[in-house]
Structures are given as structure tokens and as C-alpha cells.
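testing teh design pipeline on a random one, pls ignore if ur not involved
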């Protein structure tokens, strides 16, 4: 497991496309510049060596059992196999669930600043985004405004909420108490929660991710739809394989009728099945090493920023491989900040404003890369920001 190896990405890699021609370092798209585990690579080679890539048994009980065993092993989370469904991606699943769980015009709560496709898919389905902004503290940390959440969910025109856990981009790993309160509020207001937990495996040492459903009262669990995937953790997003856990019988039936029967979306492709099996069953050691590497990269970045850009505010990272960095002390115009980063410093981050107005003059920085790339990008950024305006 050499996480310092600099790997040449494919010509159609979204993250790196055009970067070399611009001499630009891309730390934006949320995939890793790390090689997958040996188990995944071997599984894909074995599948390729079959030389026939026909129909597979897909989401059979044997496959589902491997998926469930993984979440039992790491999170103590058990669910019936019949409650596990396939989606190519979690954003796709959220879009579908928004259609199944709400009517056009109804509101859906999101906790900004938050992963921007939440808003995009809500609005694309002709629903209304209702914001429950996170509370930012002086040290850059964030907490939920639970009183405001209760107020928003009490509105009869609001159908439910989307929870990001761990939170992208602010890096919070919600505590047991926070999750219990969120589920209790939704239950008392008779609202559902779509819980996006794709980053659940990527957690800093000393922190523990808790599945929302596991923290909820038994009566509340039918209103929680959990979205997980091997893609973010094991760097196989291009294979498109996510899993949706639905307990409520009515919602399960709607999913079957719409997604499986009408849209004919029911199982991963043969390569995704091979990779997911190897990820869930044989890649725990790689997962642990990856988390250690992310923690090391964060420590390097934090030390560098404290020395070179002392007025920047780096939010405490508890989970994900993303840093949330406030650069407003060095540049107060978000459009100019983007221009300075892309054109002058030749680094490509995600501009914070895309996650909500609260993210203006922030950068979301993907640190899942060799430290040599990360540090060069940070040096370029610092050199540009230290210039006089």
C-alpha cells in the first residue's frame, strides 16, 4: 500500500482532465489519487480474464450478505436482506427518493453549507429547498441548530430532510446525541430522513461514526432511508455501485414499482459486483491504512497553514478526506478567489460558495492524494494569497 505513488490517471478522469496542459493541480472531485486495494484489483483482473461479461445474478442473497456483514463488522448495524436495494449512485438515489417521498412544491430541508447536488436534485424535481444552516463557531467548527430544524420540519409544507453524515464539506462526524435528537425531531413531526452516509468509513482517529438508524428509536426507523456505498471508501466510484436500505413496506413497494419495474434499475454490472465483493470482504486492512494516510495528510496541511497562512481558519476535520478552509482573511471576493486559485496559483479546489452562501471565500480541498501533490498545491495557494492585493 504505497499511498505516495503518483499514478497516471486515465485520459477521461474527470478530476485530472486538462490539468496537465494547464500545469494545474486538481484537488477537487471527491475521488482519491490512491491505487485501490490489491484485493479489488485482483478481483477485476479475474473478472476480465473470464472474457465473457454476460448477465450476472446481481443482488442475490449471497452478495447482500457480504454487504450486510461489512456494516455489522464495522458499525454493529444489522438490517434484513430484503431491505437492501441497488442504485448506481447515491445522488441518483436521492433524486428518486425525493420523487417517491414528496410532491412537487413541497419543501425538503438541507443543512447548509452542504454537498451541492442535494439542492440541485431537490430543485430539478420541482421541490423547494428549505435551509437549516449549521452554526459556525470561532474555531471553525460546526454544530446543528436543532431549534431551527424543529421549526422547519414542523411546517406542513415540508416533507422531510436530507442528512449528510459525516458532513460534506464541513467534516463533522455527528455524535450519538446529535443523531438521536435529529431522529427524534423528525419522528415527532412525522417527517422522513434520507441519510447520506457515503463517507461513513472515512473517519479521523479518535472519532466514531454512528449510523443514524442505529441511534433512532425503533418507531422512527421506518422513516429513515440510509444511503451507503463502497465507492467513496475504496475509490471505485467509476464502477457505479451504491446501496439503499429501506425498512418501510410502503416505501419499499414504491421503490420496487418505480425503480426496479419501470426504470429497470436493479443490480450492479459484473465488474462492480466483483469490486464491491472484494472491497467489503477483503479490504479492511487497506481501509485502515487509507484512514491513517488521510490523517497524516491533514496534519501536514494543518501545520503548513498555521505557519504560512495564519489567518486562514481550517475547520476541525472529524471525517471525510476533505478540508474546509476559510480564506476570507486573504480574499473577500469569492469570484476573485476562484480566479486567483485557478489562473494564478494553478490549483483547482471546490469553491466553497457552491455548497451554499455560507461557503463564500472557503475552499473545499481533497487531501486523498500523495502528500507531494498536496503540499505543492498548498505552497502554490499560499504564495498567491501572500501577494498584496
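output:
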Amino acid at each position: 500500500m504505497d499511498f505516495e505513488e503518483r499514478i497516471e490517471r486515465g485520459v477521461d478522469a474527470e478530476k485530472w482532465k486538462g490539468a496537465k496542459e494547464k500545469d494545474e493541480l486538481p484537488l477537487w472531485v471527491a475521488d482519491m489519487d490512491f491505487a485501490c486495494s490489491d484485493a479489488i484489483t485482483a478481483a477485476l483482473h479475474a473478472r476480465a480474464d473470464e472474457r465473457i461479461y454476460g448477465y450476472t445474478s446481481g443482488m442475490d442473497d449471497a452478495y447482500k450478505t457480504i454487504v450486510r456483514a461489512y456494516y455489522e463488522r464495522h458499525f454493529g448495524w444489522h438490517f434484513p436482506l430484503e431491505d437492501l436495494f441497488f442504485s448506481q449512485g447515491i445522488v441518483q438515489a436521492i433524486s428518486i427518493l425525493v420523487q417517491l417521498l414528496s410532491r412537487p412544491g413541497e419543501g425538503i430541508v438541507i443543512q447548509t453549507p452542504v454537498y451541492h447536488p442535494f439542492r440541485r436534485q431537490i430543485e430539478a424535481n420541482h421541490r423547494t429547498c428549505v435551509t437549516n444552516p449549521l452554526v459556525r463557531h470561532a474555531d471553525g467548527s460546526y454544530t446543528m441548530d436543532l431549534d431551527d430544524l424543529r421549526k422547519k420540519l414542523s411546517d406542513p409544507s415540508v416533507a422531510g430532510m436530507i442528512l449528510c453524515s459525516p458532513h460534506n464539506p464541513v467534516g463533522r462526524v455527528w455524535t450519538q446525541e446529535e443523531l438521536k435528537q435529529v431522529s427524534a425531531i423528525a419522528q415527532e413531526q412525522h417527517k422522513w430522513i434520507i441519510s447520506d452516509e457515503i463517507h461513513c468509513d472515512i473517519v479521523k482517529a479518535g472519532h466514531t461514526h454512528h449510523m443514524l438508524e442505529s441511534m433512532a428509536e425503533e418507531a422512527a426507523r421506518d422513516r429513515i432511508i440510509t444511503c451507503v456505498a463502497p465507492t467513496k471508501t475504496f475509490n471505485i466510484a467509476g464502477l457505479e455501485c451504491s446501496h439503499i436500505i429501506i425498512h418501510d413496506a410502503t416505501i419499499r413497494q414504491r421503490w420496487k414499482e418505480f425503480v426496479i419495474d419501470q426504470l429497470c434499475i436493479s443490480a450492479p454490472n459484473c465488474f462492480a459486483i466483483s469490486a464491491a465483493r472484494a472491497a467489503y470482504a477483503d479490504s479492511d486492512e487497506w481501509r485502515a491504512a487509507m484512514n491513517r494516510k488521510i490523517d497524516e495528510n491533514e496534519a501536514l496541511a494543518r501545520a503548513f497553514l498555521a505557519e504560512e497562512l495564519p489567518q486562514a481558519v481550517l475547520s476541525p476535520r472529524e471525517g471525510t478526506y476533505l478540508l474546509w478552509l476559510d480564506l476570507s482573511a486573504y480574499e473577500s471576493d469569492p469570484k476573485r478567489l476562484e480566479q486567483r486559485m485557478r489562473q494564478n496559483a494553478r490549483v483547482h479546489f471546490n469553491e466553497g460558495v457552491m455548497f451554499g452562501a455560507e461557503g463564500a471565500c472557503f475552499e473545499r480541498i481533497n487531501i486523498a492524494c500523495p502528500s507531494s501533490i498536496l503540499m505543492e498545491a498548498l505552497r502554490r495557494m499560499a504564495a498567491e494569497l501572500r501577494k498584496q492585493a
